[in-house]
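Final report, Chapter 2: Outcomes

The project's central promise was a pipeline that accepts a single protein chain and returns its three-dimensional structure in a standardized token representation, suitable for archiving and comparison. That pipeline is now operational. To close this chapter, we reproduce one record exactly as it appears in the project archive, with the input sequence first and the structure output second.
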Amino acid sequence: MKTKIQIEIRASEGGNDSKLLVDDLMNIYVQSCKNNNFAWRVDEIRDGFALIWIEGHNVNDFFKNESGSHCFVRIPPTERNGRVHTSFVTVAIMNSTTMNTFTLNKNDVTKQYTCSRGKGGQNVNRIQSCVVLTHIPTGIKVRCEETRYQLKNEEIAYQRLTEKLSAIETEKTNNTTKNHRNNQIGDAGRGVKKRTYRIREDVVLDHITGKTCRWKDILKGKIELLK
């Protein structure tokens, strides 16, 4: 089945090296998408953060083990004294059910036409150009009497009602997404790590499946080796 997800990658412990690893992990997931013919797009990338949109057959199942805290043990490219650092990056998987896709159902709206109360002469006060929309499930009302034309006022009222309801849904979605993310990454610390990458040893250990593979293969996007 074709599904759609977003992968959030965030720097955690490790300072600048953690931020560099966000880019590395993003490139691994992009390469994995290419290997498996998934549609993908980098929606956002900034210092220590990346957001990738992915769509394809069973992508949610393919990437499900990626969520959590990823531990990298390596000598960072910026390290001058050859010291080994331990850095953490968190990954959260957001599926389509946690994304805001609000659409106003006009069957949930009642309309009422009244005369305007503002200035505009007798014509405005006699003709029912004012539109009042009521969203039945929430009880939210929107009134528009900005123009002399009923249809135009109705269009504006629907737009404003949609904006109000969309803002409410966005807030709900943000809270749901936040809880969903926190359930996946916990405190983003060492106690909840899902995977360990020992770069110098060319070994990657998945703590969910118990499987290991080479870091060189992961760099090629072959994350399915750890499933």
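Archive annotation: The helical segments are 16-35, 59-63, 121-126, 150-185, 215-219.
This record, like all others produced under the grant, will remain available to the consortium after the project formally closes.
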